[in-house]
Design brief:
Radius of gyration: 21 Å
Order of helices and strands: HEEEEEEEHEEEEEEEHEEEEHE
Largest sheet: 12 strands, antiparallel, barrel
Strand content: over 45%
Oligomer: single chain
Structural class: mainly beta
Number of domains: 1
Helix content: 10-25%
CATH architecture: Beta Barrel
CATH superfamily: monomeric porin ompg
Number of strands: 19
Length: 319
């Protein structure tokens, strides 16, 4: 089943790329070229580019819930072909012994989750399509969530390990509009069959402009606010409540989940390297039942609140 799903995604991606290439009408200069930060091109048509980043997060939040109350590292690597199809992998590394307290083995400086994936993504701009009023970014992606065999002592999967899962995701954003709206859809097709939605608005403010007109800013600040929503299956898969008899029962209730207010500062060091940092506040503001359940989610009991302050740094290199 897994192999068939991946094969289907690859086949669709190949068809989309072939169609996009056949539709190209502009005159292109001849020859191969490589530009740092933009990758390899042929006749000005993008062929392949790569992106690698290393992120540090003071906490690991998932749908606003505390998955790790200690800092983590997140290395990411992606390759993009023809400016349409991307293949990559993301990983989460514990950098403390939190896993021992949380009920799984000590995974300090080892990965706890691995996310290989494929995406069909592209930005459609008025420069290429005159009938468009503004730039539209679209992405359809698939990710597999893999857990190492030693992760959980009491998980639901084989031999007591955590269940793996698969996700289908869709994203659409309008980055050139003032409030840069972004809509995100996620469907878990293995673990809980649940759906999660997120709507974000923000605004990028140039603090230091580029050296020449038309260049990207050197330093930017972006405030944003986002609100998540989970259907009953998603909420039930993660949250529970205690009944009048003291028994823990799954929370069979859909509703608004995490609200996140964030500020991000980004420094474009050069054409192919950037450094960014953020601070964020997250809470379950609008749904009392979900908020009360979120207070008891963190596995070790170190954190008993629905709200969280987090901060992080990310170094990104484009090839």
């Amino acid at each position: 089943m897994k192999a068939k799903t991946i094969a289907l995604v690859c086949a669709v991606a190949t068809c989309v790329v072939a169609f996009a290439a056949s539709e190209a009408e502009e005159e292109k200069s001849e020859g191969w070229a490589y530009n740092p930060g933009e990758g390899v091109s042929f006749n000005e048509q993008p062929i392949v580019s790569a992106e690698a980043s290393l992120e540090f997060h003071s906490k690991y939040l998932w749908y606003g819930l505390v998955e790790n109350n200690d800092p983590i590292l997140k290395p990411i690597g992606w390759m993009t072909f023809f400016d349409w199809v991307s293949l990559g992998v993301e990983a989460y590394f514990d950098i403390t012994k939190y896993g021992r307290r949380a009920g799984y083995t000590n995974r300090a400086w080892q990965y706890t989750e691995l996310y290989p994936g494929i995406a069909i993504e592209h930005s459609f701009s008025p420069d290429d399509y005159e009938w468009l009023p503004t730039t539209i970014y679209l992405s359809i992606s698939y990710q597999y969530e893999f857990h190492p065999n030693s992760k959980y002592k009491g998980g639901d999967g084989p031999d007591g390990q955590a269940d793996d899962s698969q996700f289908w995701m869709f994203e659409v954003s309008l980055p050139d509009l003032c409030f840069e709206p972004k809509f995100y859809y996620e469907r878990d097709v293995m673990r809980d069959d649940g759906t999660y939605l997120n709507l974000e608005i923000g605004h990028t403010i140039a603090l230091i402009d580029g050296a020449e007109e038309g260049e990207d800013p050197v330093l930017t600040f972006r405030p944003s606010i986002a609100q998540g929503f989970g259907n009953a299956m998603r909420v039930r898969g993660y949250l529970s409540r205690t009944n009048s008899e003291g028994e823990e029962m799954a929370l069979d209730h859909s509703g608004l989940m995490d609200l996140c207010v964030k500020g991000e500062l980004a420094w474009q060091i050069c054409d192919y390297c950037s450094l960014s940092g953020y601070v964020a506040y997250s809470d379950f503001v609008f749904d009392r039942k979900i908020r009360e359940a979120a207070r008891e989610y963190e596995a070790t009991g170190d954190w008993e609140h629905s709200w969280n302050f987090t901060a992080g740094l990310a170094l990104k290199v484009n090839f």
